[in-house]
Amino acid sequence: MEQQKRASLKNEIVSLPSPEDLPAPPKIKPLKKGAAAPRILSAAEEAGIADEFDGMMLERKLSLFASRKTELLVACGFDEDPYTSGAEAVLRESAEDVAEGLWLAAKACGAKERLVAASSRREAHRFAACCTGTAAVAAGNRYPARTLLMQKLRRGGKKAEWIGVQACAALGAAVRGECRNETVVTVAGDGVRRWGNFRVRIGTPVGDVLAAGKPEKRVCLVAVGSSVTGRTVTDLSLPVTAATRCVIALKRPPRVPAHPCVGCGRCARACPAGVLPWLVHRELEGGSPEALRLFHVEDCVGCGACHTVCPSGIDLMAAVRRAAGLKEGRDLHETE
Length: 336
Ligand code: SF4
Ligand code: SF4
Hints:
By secondary structure, this protein is α/β, with parallel strands linked by helices. 35% of the residues lie in helices and 14% in strands. The chain has a six-stranded mixed beta sheet with strand order 1-7-6-10-8-9, with helices on both faces. A four-stranded parallel beta sheet has the order 4-3-2-5, sandwiched between helices. The longest helix has 15 residues, at 95-109. The site of one iron/sulfur cluster (SF4) has 16 residues, from helix 10 and helix 11.
């Protein structure tokens, strides 16, 4: 996995030209360093900053964290899938903006503690060396690393929440009055000759980002988003959004033949939410969905770890989502 990421982290982030038909980013009033929480929230809203991991507006996210009385705010500076490396690249290249933005974000939501989570010890040391006032830790290697890290940090009842490093860097840049109407997207896969991280204006067509990776003549599959939970796109004129973190091009679509469950238990061990995906799958296959009401399917965080580790190639996340739909009262056909 690290080897694949190294290919896209080899070079610095490349800024792509903004499409001519996109309006210029709005000017914002520089955010003063000593600004109070309401002003920080309004600056985040003015600058239109959204979190790159879930697309949620930063102002909304921080207001929610404030209502939850958050004590520790974590900046997520790593990507937990094999292809994406935009978070690592931003943490390396914009460490000071990330530290500044995290400080402001923590102030806005009332968190007294701040922490940067990096992909490895080396990256954590690299960050700590240039931003001495902010603690940094390495996330674990086990997927889903962010969920597992947050579970660890919340042990003992601590109220910990996370935001993305790109959102932090954008808030840090607001101190200079810069409005970052852009996002860093990783282009990777055997269907492109130039792997890398590209800074693109939000609204840029996915096809322009793919072109920056010098695609091969025959590309069979283009997926947008994480390689674990992303989706295939056929219309390359679709715009990049704040949450577009990766464009993956493959020469051949991956073939994952589904075999019967072999009862290895990997899906249950991988699940950070304590769901038993094999049991949910078995119940759905057996046509006795009533029993599903007993399982904690509604706790699923959609990380995709279960189907990633399943040696039989069963789409367990889809099964758990269907079960959650059933529990909500939607019938079996609606959830298919
Ligand atoms: S997708 Fe849901 S069920 Fe599967 S491992 Fe993640 S949390 Fe568990
Ligand atoms: S990982 Fe796949 S094969 Fe193993 S128990 Fe879960 S569903 Fe069955």
